Sequence to fold (349 residues):
Amino acid sequence: MTVNAYGAHAGDQPLGPIAITRRAPGAHDVEIDIAFCGVCHSDLHQVRGEWAGTVYPCVPGHEIVGRVAAVGAHVGGFAVGDLVGVGCMVDSCRSCPDCDAGLENYCDGMVGTYNAPTPDAPGHTLGGYSERIVVNERYVLRVRHDPSQLAAVAPLLCAGITTWSPLRHWQAGPGKRVGIVGIGGLGHMGIKLARALGAHVVAFTTSESKRRDAEALGAHEVVVSRDPEAMAAQGRRLDLIVNTVAAPHDLDAYLSLLKRDGTMVLVGAPSSPHPSPQVFNLIMKRRALAGSMIGGIPETQEMLDFCAEHGIVADIEMIEASEINAAYERMLEGKVKYRFVIDSATLKA
Ligand SMILES: [Zn+2]
Ligand SMILES: [Zn+2]
Fold:
């Protein structure tokens, strides 16, 4: 089937309308009528060819929500009309230790929702800036939020799970002091989720102007990282830091805020390396520096269910598909609170 999409034919060209084909649903496939798709920083980097390996035409988008339009003969978990989501992956090898553990995000054969090899035309996956997508049911998530919240659920599929996974893995919860560094698309979800998990949340920002917003999102304390006294006051007090900042920066300033055995997890992908941390800053308090990438399918479902139960969604600004290029520019300037979401109805001719 041919569907309307938004994408680019080269890295130096703006996104525009593009017609793409989707495979007919196979026995285990779910065909989804996309209602909304969130706009992630990865979309911008990929479509502009700023990370190696972008293939064109490129249709970004991996924060997808919508309704099931059709199901294959052997699909057991979903029916036409169900509210569903698709995140950063649409397939994986299904037989390695990572897939067996439900951590398909770490599978060497993980197939990204866009720009990954596939037998389908045109030979690479095409993402959620489109009217419809066809996905194997193993990689489809159930959305239990009220349908009126659907647009704001979309960013949970990447920004939500990217912060949820480390918060859960390092056991953020009551009695824990958790730092969230950076208050953007990822960080604003990190604050909401850490708060709902019962942790004491300390938000770090370079900008005093974000203090009120961070408090409104649920931070118990807000620290302006340019203020040495405020930073020193947090010294050796945090159990866990989820650092969402992608720009290279001084990691030691944050490592020194960890208690003994504390961990800082990096979830932002810098285009050039961070200055190396001082090893002494790690060994003196048995601190750990870790990384984490999105999350597996079972924990993504766990996160969605938790958010539905606690009424958690992202803070979004809805745009029409034709506004995407301008939205990218505002995203680069950090001028979005906190995630753009494309209304897929504006793709329809
Ligand atoms: Zn993303
Ligand atoms: Zn695998």
